[in-house]
Amino acid sequence: MAQKTTIEDVARIAGVSIATVSRALGKPDVVSRDTRDKVTAAIEQTGYTANAMARNLRRQKTRMIVVLVPNIGNPFFSEILAGIEEVATANGYNILIGNTDNDPVRENNFANFVQGNQADGLLLLNGRAPDGNGRAVKLPPLVVLCERIPDSELPTVRIDNDLAAQDAIRHLIELGHRRIAQIAGPPVNILTVDRSRGAARTLQAAGLDADVVVNGDFSIASGAAAMRELLRRTEHPTAVFCSNDEMAMGAIQEIKAAGLTVPGDISVIGFDDLTFAEVYDPSLTTVHQPRRLIGETAMGVLVDILAGKPAPTEPIVLGAELRVRASTGPAPV
Predict the structure, then answer these.
(1) pTM score, two decimals?
(2) What architecture is domain 64-159+293-318?
(3) What would the pLDDT profile of 190-211 be if each residue is shown by its tens digit?
């Protein structure tokens, strides 16, 4: 039986130390090109582990992908990350999750992993590309997920938020609602912009007031606060379209606290279809985003780019679906 090749054999043939072989394999950027070439040749000669290791060394591939997430505690991202991880693993990549807290400095620090050859590519769920903290920066291979970046030609995987919001408002109109409010996200957020625009367009087309809007920050607490403000008005809405599920749940809590019922007095629609939306009380009518598919598709696009294939020049727009449940019903008479 042939004896298994060891790292000591590679070091001996390359004429370097075991530690140098280890550095060449793990952190090729800290080893000179001449040394990398010697180690690569020794790996190929001995067949140490796999020839793929030598190919990765020559190409300085780390098999690591950095995923920038604005808030890792937000349940919206869990299914997306699961989809990313599944495709990454199937293609021999690992993922590093960068929780940025929407801090541009932290975003750029994570992006530097790629530029320092410590990772191969980026997946962006934070709605903006790294800007180098004010310095000129060459963008690494990357794909944008969910939040489109305005005036950008970066490869993007998302849904049509404008169209999905239109479907939600149309559902309420078909139920007979005429006083429909929005609990929107932060005004500068691109998701808020797209969803509010779609909602307003549909309300205006039906001859309804499109200006009953209160902004939150996508949290449950902000949804409750926005609903309190709407209930203080002389004539409160009979239906509310919320820019995400968490604000919708906050709104429902506040409606119940005021002694009203959902949907008997006020119907509520959310957006995203979080895992627990279906088991909420009442079960939440919401726009379903194919979050796992978004993650799978984006990681697949990045794998292709890293393999040398051209990046898609148009956004990949996946379908969204309105899931009608118990939180919406006919307008009160």
Answers:
(1) 0.79
(2) 3-Layer(aba) Sandwich (3.40)
(3) 999 999 999 999 999 999 999 9
